[in-house]
Fold each of these.
Amino acid sequence: MSGKPLPTALKIFKNTARKDQLNEFEPAPARDQIQPPDNLSDGALKNWGLVVEQLKSAGIMTNLDNQALGLYCEAYSRWCEANSKIAEHGMVIKAPSGYPVQSPYLSISNKAFEQMRAMLSEFGMTPSSRSRIKAEPKEIVNEFDQF
């Protein structure tokens, strides 16, 4: 088996679940307390508000995912801040010696980018990770069916 194991819900969502490989005792976290972590920066909190609603509507977010999404939001905030500094000062700056050197913001931006990319895949937020998911169409409930 290559890669890390997928949660049962994701296997069902991807339509790759096999009865002989399902964990019938896998925890099923609640979805009623989806709140941002207390220690998010302002930039991360702003991004949280944009992303969490989309993940909730896709049925992906649970109470246990708050910290993981917080990590993504912090990395995104850091990436945005570093990129604005790169735009302001350039990718190459002058060292105290007078020689040109790579801006320290470039490595901050690159590291945050890698962190974001890893978390995007965890939540199925890239075209590639979504292409492996087969979502069942949502059932339309007709209130008159009961009559």
Amino acid sequence: MNSRHGKLIFVDLETTGANHTSDRITEIGIVEVDGGRVSSWSTLVNPGVSIPPFIQSLTGITNDMVRDAPTLEELRDELLARLSGGIFVAHNARFDYGFLRNALKELGHSLRCEVVCTVKLSRKLHPHEARHNLDALIARHGLAVEGRHRALADAELIRQFWQKMESEVAADLFDEAVRAQLQRPSLPMHMSPDMLDDIPDAPGVYLFYGENDALLYVGKSIHLRQRVLSHFSADHRLYKEMRITGEIRRLEWRETAGEIGALLLEAQLIKDRHPIHNRALRRQKELCSWQLRPVAGGTLQPALAYASEEDFGRGDRLYGLFKTRRKAETALREMAEAHHLCLVMLGLESRTHAGKPCFAHQLRRCRGACVGTEPAALHQARLEAALASLRVKTWPYPGPIGIVERGAPRDGEARREVHVVDNWCYLGTARSDDELHSLLEDIPARPAFDLDTYKILARALERRDLDVVGLAACGAESLR
């Protein structure tokens, strides 16, 4: 095997569990390909902790087997030498590379390698296939199995898969798939590459900080890692993103179970913390809506209602949500023109005496409600028909609800979150019963209505597959 990509280091680990910050390595397997030379190396590792029975059963590695094995500290120098000067290739590379990088960091050494993940490689080269785990690759590509769930045997399977792809896939397609993973983001000189290593490919929110820890920007994505890295792409970068990335000193991220949680958290953080470069999603102090109210003569006329004064979640006959009074009046005038409505009857134009036609009537854009040629009841019916598409939805539940969102299983666990919502207002997300009870105990008498949160929730609640529970004072009963 003589690879076009230089020295390749195929790596697999066995561990005591899936969490690279609390679990430990029990075995390392490496197959190195350099030119035409192929060499293998493996070792058991004393993890310093007991191996759980389930892991012993899965891997066949017992506590007795590792008791006299070298520790990672004893293996450190040899391991660093073996991992240098080549491309680190692993199946689900984030797991193996993350484990090694974190373990070596605890020993005072940094691991910096170019990394290729064969799960991502398989997805790129065979996008029509549903499964890309190692067992699926064995069956699909006829890989020769000498053992499973042992480090060296699995590292050899990864090498076989690479060799198959390199020989069977068109060279330009394969090389481009590898190159796409090796491209490193163009980071500002004051930002350490280590900041990007642990970002998960999962839904969530990211925060960029500048000098003096000032919050620069908050964003969200269902693929956090991909989105954050896109900010540092050297190709076709927007001027705004160039400005932001040039100011970044550090970053944070907060993982969520799914897209709804990411949307709600992003909107909340922007409103509460006012990032310098976020203009959208900020609180609207003048948020208002047109509300039909009775006037003299028994008809209904639009009047501006403000979210600071009116309960928009349970308000009656509210139409449209506008960030300012000016935008509300502009929208109503445009509607009047489109439907030949009378500006006097809408309260947008005053007149000196009864019976005087409105300005639009003089231009034949009003059907005469102002001078009695169109009955007031007919004008009102046409007004309500025109407004119908703008009607603000009344909160459809008797009280607070929980939107249950479950994430894809990752590192052996599936994230589960309950987004607590009342009257179109987001009150927070609970990940445990205690957090849920705390949120329910602290519900304000009238939560602040927010336009962006309303839009997020209105779209979400239209989904037929959404898991919604009704929340009593400190409990829950299924609604749907």
Amino acid sequence: MTDLSRNAQVLRYLLQVAPGIGRTKLAKFAYLADLESRRYLGKPISGFEYYFDQRGPFDSGGFFSALRELTARGLATENQVPYGEYMGYELYATSAAAEFDFTAAEAEVLNYVAKTYLAQTARDLCDDIVYKTEPMLAAEPGKPLPMDIVNRAPGEKLEFSLQRMLAGEASAEAGRTRSLADVMRELRTGTD
């Protein structure tokens, strides 16, 4: 069990997959990971509470608290860099080991989001992806985002279970498989 807050774990994990991203992309990656997790797992990965503010979906207090936690513990670094007339930040996970308590499905969602959107600029990520999500389209400025509108209900019909699919992949990689011929023979004879 880790003693890192759940929000700090999310940010650190994302930084391991997408080193060098800025604060905006990191915050939006966390939002998109929570959104995808709600769709496929029925619940968010983090404890962030997103509000519609001038920066889109954001939990200012939660985000900066988690970031401070990471930097104070030597698990992340922030480098200030010039971006035109503004100063920005590049964030990196350090070489210090971090413990996570994510399920395989949660880790897969985090990986998917970071790898899928890494090449996007922060502006394109916000304009083309984040601002067009269901919670943002239904949001009211200054109020919490209605994130529950994308939750997958327990038992809701879905083409697949992400957790079962990942468990099956892990079993196959570990060599715990049966040939199709064996499965078909068992089905025909009614044996295991």
